[in-house]
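Fold this sequence, please.
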Amino acid sequence: MNKLINNLLLLSSLLFIFACEDDYVKINDNINLTTSDVKVVLNRAQTNALLASGINPLHGERPEQKTVTLFDKTYEGVAINDYFLTNDQLNKMADEKQSNKRLFASTNRVLLPEVGKRTIRIGGIIDGVDAMASSQLLALNEAIGKYNDLNMVKLDLEYNEITEAAGIASLDEGGPFDIIVFQDSDNNFVGDFDGVATFPFNGNPGNLFGVNTATATYLPKNITLIMMHELGHTLGMVHADFLTRRSCGNTNPLDEELGDLLGIPNVTSVCNIAGTDNTGDLVDAVMTGCGFFRYATADFTQEDADSFRKLYAQVDLPCADDLDNGEDPNNGEDPNNGEDPNNGEDPNNGEDPNNGEDPDNGEDPNNGEDPDNGEDPNNGEDPNNGEDPNNGEDPDNGEDPNNGEDPDNGEDPNNGEDPNNGQPEQDFISCVQLPAPTIDFIVQVLGIDFYQNLVAAGVICP
């Protein structure tokens, strides 16, 4: 069966890549698609790696291949909603997923020093084609202040206004810049979104985020919220409702067998920050996918604040599923700060919790009787009647249970073939055979290219 599935996937991939304009893929009796229009953006390994990092390319965040040139550097990668990941980053994430490394240690958070804080230098471009408007610069400054007001134990953010030349060099007299923020003059990088950010890579924050030219005319509060949201991505925070995209209006569940395209086992490896929402469906946060303009002020919600404070409170990731892995959840510190939690007082106020009475009321809980009624529970007899339960005989009667024959009749159960087709076993998701109505829904709501990408990624069976 595995061989058959692998062959089908290989055949479908070749069909997508090499099909001519007259080739068709028959989905059902109502839909025929020309394969010449198919764009396979992510492969199966990359799809799984993204899901394991909390970026959901299968539900609302449709991937798109892009090549952009920013500050004299060319980046080739994939845009997924308001994230941009380079091909190198995607491939590294996929390699780490295949080797069972922890994705979040290298991609989902900024690495921190053992002693003191790490300062993230952020530069807002003030001249050249990608210069930010004064309203955007003010909002960026305010957003950075909001982060510093969180008093994160291990992280500080530093605001700088920089020239395009400093952006190209990625440094000034104060040192290198960690994040460069710009107005995308042709909206090539940002597209139709208010902002797009890169994700942390190799322990460093995402180095770029751009904002749409239209945002310069937004309400100051809303521009600040955009800056807060995109900065959150550069620091490693994913969308609070990444599993459902409910804040963006998703109300149409897909086939139950796909689990709304969300019940993929790899999603469970996302680092849930201990003590914060673990549903992947939180809509009351600045870090939700959509809708944060509804807040009356540009402030983090309590859940946002708790998440960032805990994420950057210690060198090790504060993942909820790591708390019992032989580590001290208090990092070797006294959770009571050396104080008596009872303030030196008797928690019972000097009173006997039983009010001076025998909790058994002076009675024998067995009523003075032997619970076995004075009898041997085995009635004084050997439960085996003094006999060998096997009657002194070999339970196999000295015979080979296989009668001296090869249980496989001398044949290779795999017919001489490698059951894995010469490849190591992988823990990737298996494809699902969808009924026609579900396929119709995907095509009509999410688009033809999106459906074909699911097939090419191995999520939906061809």
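The chain has a mean pLDDT of 74. Residues 39-325 form a domain with the Collagenase (Catalytic Domain) fold (CATH 3.40.390.10).
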